[in-house]
């Protein structure tokens, strides 16, 4: 199962990238330069994950050469990391500590890239399908693959954290499938709600999302998470994660998360009711 997770991650990453390229060509051929520019702009935040990947290669003692820098410049750095994981899994059988470390690096980087790049692209293409071109096949396929890829990035990260626990083996396929369905449904409903609200009330969607973001950021600060030691970086981490919590819940503290998840869904429900009231 450990080899299947990175293999499926790489397949979905390739499918998502191919669909995004088709969407760019679609807007270019139809002369929709505004949507073309926004679609290309969604690629820019993904370079944060590529830069972090290069820094981690250097920290691991692998001096990045020209070819490695070129791969990251073309946003293929994570593809290279997945390929390394698959080669290491074929050699060691999936049980080495070095393999687990490589898997952890690529899962974290892929989750960061998905949140910074795939999520904005998903929102944009979903808005195009709902408000601009309901019959648009290519934007619809691109949005669907982005949703699936983002959900799988969350599932693969959860799979890795499960492997870190002492005595835990790789979860069965049924558990992985249930997690994927849960993440896909949660993200899909949140994205659809925001897109429909934006269609009806235009820029008021930023007010609703902003209130949710502030509530989540203050809540994370009240939990005193110790993932980041420096005060300034700790505040920045809480602000960034607060923005992620507009769409999905990610457990960042050890121990049972039932109470925290219940509070998150309570705030999300209030957010939906507030949106309908407006």
TrEMBL record:
Major location category of this protein: membrane
Record field: transmembrane: 33-57, 126-154, 174-196, 203-222, 234-252
GO CC term, one of those recorded: plasma membrane
Keywords, ordered alphabetically: Cell membrane, Membrane, Transmembrane, Transmembrane helix
UniProt membrane topology term: Multi-pass membrane protein
Location of this chain's protein in the cell: Cell membrane; Membrane
Stated family: Belongs to the XK family.
PANTHER family the UniProt entry points to: XK-RELATED PROTEIN, XK-RELATED PROTEIN 5
Protein name, entry field: XK-related protein
Organism this protein belongs to: Urocynchramus pylzowi
């Amino acid at each position: 199962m450990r080899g299947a997770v990175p293999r499926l991650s790489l397949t979905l990453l390739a499918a998502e990238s191919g669909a995004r390229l088709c969407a760019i060509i679609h807007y270019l051929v139809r002369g929709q330069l505004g949507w073309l520019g926004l679609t290309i702009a969604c690629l820019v935040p993904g370079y944060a994950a590529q830069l972090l990947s290069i820094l981690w290669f250097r920290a691991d003692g692998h001096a990045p050469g020209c070819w490695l820098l070129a791969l990251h410049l073309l946003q293929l750095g994570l593809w290279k990391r997945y390929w390394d994981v698959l080669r290491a899994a074929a050699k060691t059988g999936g049980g080495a500590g070095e393999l687990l470390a490589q898997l952890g690096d690529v899962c974290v980087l892929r989750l960061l890239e998905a949140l910074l790049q795939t999520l904005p692209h998903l929102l944009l293409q979903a808005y195009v399908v709902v408000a601009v071109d309901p019959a648009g096949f290519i934007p619809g396929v691109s949005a669907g693959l982005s949703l699936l890829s983002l959900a799988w990035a969350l599932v693969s990260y959860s799979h890795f954290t499960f492997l870190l626990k002492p005595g835990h083996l790789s979860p069965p396929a049924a558990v992985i499938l249930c997690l994927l369905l849960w993440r896909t449904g949660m993200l899909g409903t949140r994205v659809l709600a925001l897109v429909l609200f934006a269609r009806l009330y235009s820029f008021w969607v930023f007010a609703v999302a902003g209130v949710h973001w502030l509530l989540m950021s203050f809540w994370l600060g009240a939990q005193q998470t110790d993932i980041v030691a420096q005060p300034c970086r700790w505040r920045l981490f809480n602000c960034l994660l607060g923005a992620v919590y507009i769409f999905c819940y990610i457990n960042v503290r050890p121990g049972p998360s039932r109470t925290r998840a219940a509070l998150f869904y309570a705030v999300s429900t209030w957010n939906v009711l507030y949106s309908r009231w407006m």
